[in-house]
Amino acid sequence: MFYYLYSEAPFWVNKYPIDEDYYIGIGHCSKVSDEYMSVARSAAVDEISSQLEIKVSGNFVRQLTQENLQLKEAINKRIDISTKSKINDLELVDKFEDKQNYWVYYRLSKAKYQEQKKIDLSNAINTALSHYYNAKNSENNLLIPDALKSYFNAMIPLISYIYEPLEVDIEGNKVNLFNEIYSSILNLRKNLIININPQQIDVVIYKQLQNKINIDFSYMGKSIPDIPFSAEFTKGSGDFVTQKDNELNKQILILSHINSAVNPQIITIEINLKKLLVDFKDEPFISEIIALIENPSQDLLINVKNILLSLNISESLFGVNSPQTNGEHIFIENITPAGFSITDNLDMADYIIKLKTKTRKGNTFKSFFFAYSNTHIDIINPQNNQIFSSIDVSDAKGSAGKYTTAAQKSLNKAMENAASDLINFFQNQTIENGK
């Protein structure tokens, strides 16, 4: 077609042309932009693309996208990109420009577009079916990771056509191919089971542990090795590692430390579909589908026992032993919520806590008197009476209108600090059992 630089704007600039045989797009851009020609063309393509009707077929897909707006957004974005990339037969009908503006007139044959769409849809279905049958074959042969990957590969060609009927014949039944693939994934997930042994353990808080949890995966009752999984505390906190036991050809979790007094605690172990399907991480649609699928999981229940302490506490105010200071009560009140219990039976105790607090007078300032307390704590193994470790808490300060009150405040603060430091010590040390 031959184009003229009109002296006056052609009719299509001001009045949108109508042609039943074509999709029409008029693009415009101000010449303020250096890329005004490409901008105008993109606007015309966008206009044509918006006319390409998408019919939502099937209650399943409609419900799926209504319940998940992010999935719907990912689908529509993919369809939009795919549609624009497949508008290959655009015909430039005319163009016009003046000093300030540029217009372009494109059209797309409806018949050619529909014919090409049928070809593309057929190719997408055939590709998806190929992956689907590969997935079924892998599933039948218990190659579960391969089966999942093939199912998701089968979805990808269909994303741009997900709102189409997608009806195919599988084993004599007419089915929607996308629905069939999605249902197959859900069915596989349903029959993929995590078994952990043991399912429940008893541990002592803060102690060095070596609790080994065997993790097995099975599909339809048959063992499946090397399924990626994740584990995390969903209640409580502590330390563990996961690794492969090559000798047993099993995956294991080794719990080494519990550092929270919450009881009971739970470690949730679940199949990690994201890790298994890491090749699809850059495909938003697949990421949203993975998020919709409930991962098979199993909970490890951890019953946490407190550490038993035998206390030997002495308190000295200005060189005089004073059992009436209430310091021991403050110390116990602060440590018991953190996973400690007190016993008078040395045979039952995990540790002996020998605590000495000495309070001295400080300076005076106007009508205020100051006192300071220093505390020494020995953590003792009751089996051999050997000191395991020691903690010093220096210069806890108290002030009041008289020395006795300042001393009591200082000692109270010292006991709070001593309790806090003892808790921190046990929380931050992986220690062996006292027994």
What is shown here, in short?
This protein has 435 residues and is of the alpha+beta class. The chain is built from 11 helices and 20 strands. The strands form 5 sheets. Strands 15, 16, 17, 18, 19 and 20 form a 6-stranded mixed beta sheet that branches. Strands 6, 8, 9, 11 and 12 form a 5-stranded antiparallel beta sheet that branches. A 4-stranded mixed beta sheet has the order 7-14-13-10, with no helix packed on it.
Question: What would the principal axes of the Cα set say about the shape?
Answer: elongated
Low-confidence stretches: none
Fourth-tier CATH superfamily name of the domain at 307-428: ABC-type transport auxiliary lipoprotein component
CATH A-level architecture of the domain at 307-428: 3-Layer(aba) Sandwich
How many helices does DSSP assign?
Answer: 11
Q: What level of helicity do the residues show?
A: 25-40%
Determine and state the CATH class of the domain at 307-428.
Answer: Alpha Beta
Mean pLDDT: 86
* Strand residues, percent: 35-45%
Might you state the CATH topology name of the domain at 307-428?
Answer: Rossmann fold
Rg from alpha-carbon coordinates: 37 Å
- Based on DSSP secondary structure assignment, what is the total number of beta strands? 20
- What class would the helix/strand composition place it in? alpha+beta
Largest sheet: 6 strands, mixed
Distance separating the two termini? 96 Å
What can you tell me about this protein's structure?
By secondary structure, the protein is α+β, with helices and mostly antiparallel strands. Among the domains are: 103 residues, Immunoglobulins (Immunoglobulin-like, Sandwich); 122 residues, ABC-type transport auxiliary lipoprotein component (Rossmann fold), CATH 3.40.50.10610. The chain is built from eleven helices and 20 strands. Strands 15, 16, 17, 18, 19 and 20 form a six-stranded mixed sheet that branches. A hairpin with a 2-residue loop joins strand 18 and strand 19. Helix 5 packs antiparallel against helix 6. The relative contact order is 0.08. The mean pLDDT is 86.
